[in-house]
TrEMBL record:
It comes from Piprites chloris (Wing-barred manakin). It holds the Pfam family Spectrin. Keywords: Coiled coil. It comes from the Eukaryota. The gene is Utrn_1. This is UTRO protein. Residues 3-64 form a coiled coil.
Length: 254
C-alpha cells in the first residue's frame, strides 16, 4: 500500500510539473505595454517561488522511497527509477524557470534604465532650449553677448554617452519584440527634438560668434578713434595755449 501511495505521489508530482511547464514556459508572451511586462515579471517570480517550494515535497518523496527500498527492495527499485526521472525533470523545470525569471527581470531593468536615460537627456534638452531662448533679444553689449555665448557653449559640451545608451538599450528591446511600438515612438520623438534643438543651438552659436567678432572689431575701431581724437584734442589745446594762428598750423590741423 505504501508503494502504491508513493507511486501515486510521483505521478501527481510529474503531472504538476507538466502543468507548470505549460503555464510558465510554453506560452508565447507579447509585451506591448509596460504593464504587461511588469505583470509577466511578477508572475515569473511567483512561479519561481512556487516551484522552489515543491523542493520540500520532492525531498520527502525521495526519503520515503529510499526507506521503502531498504524494507522492500523490489518495490523500492521500481520507484527509485521513477523517482530519478521525476528528480531530473524537476531540476530541469527549476533551471528553466529560474532562467526565464532572470531574463524577464533583466528586460524590465533594461526598460527602466532606458526611461532613466531618456529623463536625463530630456532634462538636458530642456536646459538647451532655455539657453537658446536666452540668446534672443540680447542687449547690444559686448559682455551680454559674450556671456550668452559661453552659457550656450557650456550646455553644448554635453557628452554623447547617454544618447549612445538610449540607442543601444532601445534597439535591444525592439530586437526582442518587447515594447517595440512604445519604444520606437519615444525614440522617434526624442531624436526629432534632439536634432531640431541641436541644429538651432549650433546656428545660434555661430551667429553669436559672428556678432561677438563684429562687436569686438567695432569696439577696437572706436578705441583707436578715441585715442586719435584724444591726441588731436591735446595737440589743438597746445596750439590754443601757445596762441598759434590757424594759418600757421599744418594743413591737417587747420
Amino acid at each position: 500500500e505504501k508503494a502504491v501511495n508513493l507511486k501515486k505521489d510521483l505521478a501527481e508530482m510529474q503531472e504538476w510539473m507538466t502543468q507548470a511547464e505549460e503555464e510558465y514556459l510554453e506560452k508565447d508572451f507579447e509585451y506591448k505595454s509596460p504593464e504587461e511586462l511588469e505583470n509577466a515579471v511578477e508572475e515569473m517570480k511567483r512561479a519561481k517561488e512556487d516551484v522552489l517550494q515543491k523542493e520540500v515535497r520532492v525531498k520527502i518523496l525521495k526519503d520515503n522511497i529510499k526507506m521503502l527500498a531498504t524494507k522492500v527492495p523490489s518495490s523500492g527499485h521500481d520507484l527509485a527509477t521513477e523517482l530519478n526521472v521525476v528528480l531530473e525533470n524537476y531540476q530541469l523545470l527549476c533551471n528553466r524557470i529560474r532562467g526565464k525569471c532572470h531574463t524577464l527581470e533583466e528586460v524590465w531593468s533594461c526598460w527602466i534604465e532606458l526611461l532613466q536615460y531618456l529623463d536625463l537627456e530630456t532634462a538636458w534638452l530642456n536646459n538647451l532650449e532655455e539657453r537658446v531662448q536666452m540668446t534672443e533679444n540680447l542687449p547690444d553689449k559686448l559682455d551680454a553677448v559674450n556671456d550668452a555665448l559661453e552659457s550656450l557653449e557650456s550646455v553644448l559640451r554635453h557628452p554623447a554617452d547617454n544618447r549612445t545608451q538610449i540607442r543601444e538599450l532601445g534597439q535591444t528591446l525592439i530586437d526582442g519584440g518587447i515594447l517595440d511600438d512604445i519604444i520606437s515612438e519615444k525614440l522617434e520623438a526624442f531624436n526629432a527634438r534632439y536634432e531640431e534643438l541641436s541644429h538651432l543651438a549650433v546656428s545660434r552659436q555661430i551667429a553669436l560668434e559672428q556678432q561677438l567678432q563684429t562687436m569686438r572689431e567695432t569696439d577696437h575701431m572706436l578705441h583707436v578713434l578715441q585715442e586719435n581724437l584724444t591726441d588731436l584734442d591735446r595737440q589743438l589745446t597746445s596750439y590754443l595755449t601757445d596762441r598759434i594762428d590757424a594759418f600757421q598750423m599744418p594743413q591737417e590741423a587747420q
